[in-house]
Amino acid sequence: MQLLQRMPHLPKAKRPNYLPKRASTGNERSSDTHTRNKWKVLSKRLRSTRPCEPCQFLGHIHEAQDVDHIISLPIGAPYDEANLMPMCKQMHGKKSQLDKEGFRIPTQQGHDGLIPVDRMDILTALAGFDDRNRGEEKETLWL
User: Fold this and answer.
1) How far apart are CA 72 and CA 85, in angstroms?
2) Which of 138, 67, 81, 92 is nearest to 115 (CA)?
3) Is the dihedral of CA 112, 117, 123, 124 positive or negative?
4) CB-based contacts of 5: which residues, under 8 Å, 6+ apart?
5) Alpha-carbon torsion, ordered 57, 62, 64, 70, to 10 deg
6) Distance (Å, rounded) from C-alpha 130 to C-alpha 79?
7) What angle do CA 86, 91, 97 make, to 5 degrees?
8) Disulfide engineering: 117 pairs with which of 45, 77, 101, 106, CB 3.0-4.6 Å?
9) pLDDT by residue (tens digit) across 7-51?
10) What 3-state DSSP class applies to 100?
11) Contact 103/142 with Cβ under 8 angstroms?
């Protein structure tokens, strides 16, 4: 009977105690907000009872597959329905692209964080998303 020999291995490197703790990214997603039962129940209810809000604004009816934080975490209210918008995957991708490009809408202080003043601002920006590349300028709120 032959014995299997194990390869030697190095121990996992540990961060020295004298170094400061790593700074938080500030992004609420890095914590467990989206794994909490409160979020799971709320997002499931919004996705199952409402269609994609931007598509509905454009006159189409599509199933909502995602729930978007209009004002992104950590400054946006995570569980306030005024800050949540059910969206299909395509519109959620467009909204994420707008966020990356620096699109912002006016906000007000809600109970748990910032909420949008007028939801129509984001709906009109998403409606004009495809027109941006065709040279047709629509008025959007860019900062």
Assistant:
1) 12
2) 81
3) negative
4) none
5) -20
6) 30
7) 120
8) 106
9) 777 777 787 888 777 665 555 554 567 788 888 999 999 999 999
10) helix
11) yes
Q: CA nearest 114: which of 82, 67, 141, 68?
A: 82
Single-letter residue type at 52:
C
Q: Give dist(CA 130, CA 103) in Å, integer.
A: 15
Tokens 């409606």 sit at which residue?
A: 127
Task: Give the predicted TM-score (pTM) of the model.
Answer: 0.69
Torsion angle of the four alpha carbons 63, 65, 69, 74, in this order, in degrees rounded to the nearest 10: 170
Query: How far apart (Å, rounded) are the C-alpha atoms in residues 132 and 128?
Result: 7
Per-residue pLDDT tens over the stretch 114-124 = 999 999 999 99
